[in-house]
Amino acid sequence: MAIDADIVLDLHCDTESVVHIYTGTPLADAVRPLAALMGAHAVLLALQAGGEPFDEACSRLWWDLAAHFGPAFPLPPSCVATTVELRGEADVSYALAEQDARALLQYLAHEGVIDNPVDPLPQPLCAPTPLEGVEPVDAPHAGVLVFLKTPGDRVEAGEAIADLVAPVSGATTTLRCKVAGVFFARSVHRHVLRGMTIGKVAGPVAFRSGSLLSQ
């Protein structure tokens, strides 16, 4: 159904998070209006995120074809496809639903898809950053999780994100991020097992590779 679409908005929600957007690196400029209107705290860019997400199924073939044919046959991206994470699973309210619906309609009006009055774009809350720059913060052992940061907080490298309390010994491990950026998502669980990702920080410098969405 989306094969011939000019715009694809794949709407999701995380477990606990602020609004954030995944899209292809060549689409960074095209999604700026959407990110500004939605109040996104992170816009995460990748040429290939891994896991074959739906938005890439609609958009990635354009930059793959452009790379294949080279500059002699320039092919601009012809589908603006994004995954929009509408906060967390518990963020359900009439006020948020109305706010997000208005923002989506404003974006479609801004792009000329619907004939609605167009308001001035707000200032974006963030600049796009590479998906390769997202740091997953993992639990080194099982325990009770006490968060010290809230989604949307800006953090510096080495800053404490959460305490992990071992339920038997009472020993506490403080979990710290290694990159500076936006703490944009965290686990809904408060008792976690070793190796579980408890939160994610969007940093400006790429350092990861491989299947990025599964890490």
What Rg, in angstroms, do the CA atoms define?
19 Å
Largest beta-sheet details: 5 strands, mixed
Number of helices: 3
Order of helices and strands: EEEHEHEHEEEEEEEEE
What structural category arises from helix and sheet content?
A: alpha+beta
Summary?
By secondary structure, the chain is an alpha+beta fold. The protein has helices at residues 32-38, 54-69, 94-110, and strands at residues 7-14, 16-17, 20-24, 42-46, 80-88, 129-130, 134-138, 143-147, 153-155, 160-165, 172-176, 181-186, 191-192, 197-202.
Overview of the molecule:
With 215 residues, the chain is α+β, with helices and mostly antiparallel strands. Helix content is 19%, strand content 32%. α1 (32-38) runs antiparallel to α3. The mean pLDDT is 95. It contains three helices and 14 strands. The strands form three sheets. Strands 1-5-3-4-6 form a five-stranded mixed sheet, with helices on one face. The chain is globular, with a radius of gyration of 19 Å. The protein has helices at 32-38, 54-69, 94-110; strands spanning 7-14, 16-17, 20-24, 42-46, 80-88, 129-130, 134-138, 143-147, 153-155, 160-165, 172-176, 181-186, 191-192, 197-202.
Topology:
Blueprint lengths: L6 E8 L1 E2 L2 E5 L7 H7 L3 E5 L7 H16 L10 E9 L5 H17 L18 E2 L3 E5 L4 E5 L5 E3 L4 E6 L6 E5 L4 E6 L4 E2 L4 E6 L13
Parallel strand pairs: 1-5, 3-4, 4-6
Antiparallel strand pairs: 2-12, 3-5, 7-14, 8-10, 8-13, 9-12, 10-11, 12-14
